[in-house]
Amino acid sequence: MPSNKSVSDAPITQFINCRILRDHRLQREDMWVREGRILDPEKLFFDEQGYADKRVDCEGSIIAPGFIDVQINGGYGIDFSQPSEDVSGGVSFVAKKILEHGVTSFCPTLVTSPPAVYHKVLPQVKVHSGGQHGAGVLGVHLEGPFISLEKKGAHPEQYLRTFQSGGMKDLLEAYGSLDNVAMVTLAPELAGSQSVVRELSQRGITVSLGHSVANLSQAEEAVEHGASFITHLFNAMLPVSPTCPLWLV
Length: 249
Known about the structure:
five-stranded mixed sheet, 6 helices, alpha/beta, seven-stranded parallel sheet, 26% strand
């Protein structure tokens, strides 16, 4: 029987005997959830006259938001940048393992690779919700190959690319498809990058600045075109100095 037909037919779960962080300290309170949203118990009781369809005894455990890992290259013997016939199986295995450590969603991340790797791996990684089976996949994070040679770090130099043809054409030649891609890390100082930043942002793909020797004005221009993230801040970028301030955007 639904808890409150006038509001939603979805069942309500009450978590009891749990600890919740509130006002900078852990407090023992019940928590009510419907369709993945935390409910205000006062409104539930007095306005909706709702009740719990299911109760879960947390036995004193802490209830906290899950971690979101937007840059994970693999784990547990799995490398997302290594093509195989069962890439999705590897992603699922990692998803199950990281859930044990509190990660509830993540972006499988590919480092700079040749086009053949992207063309084989990307079609096998699909966005999906998490659950008891493992963390959810938010989409792929493509870290490279459009990054700075000087700040390439561990990325293989022979596969680095520039926007020789002017932008999106180069990007699509490298990746093959942007389906299920959530984030792209690129260096905003590369010629032709600003049109790519704008196009990716318009497609709903997060553009992250990283592995870059961009100065402040170049970073600001990228932000104006839609960039909204920085990949591993303070790493693989120019050091802070009076002539080159950190581009915290």
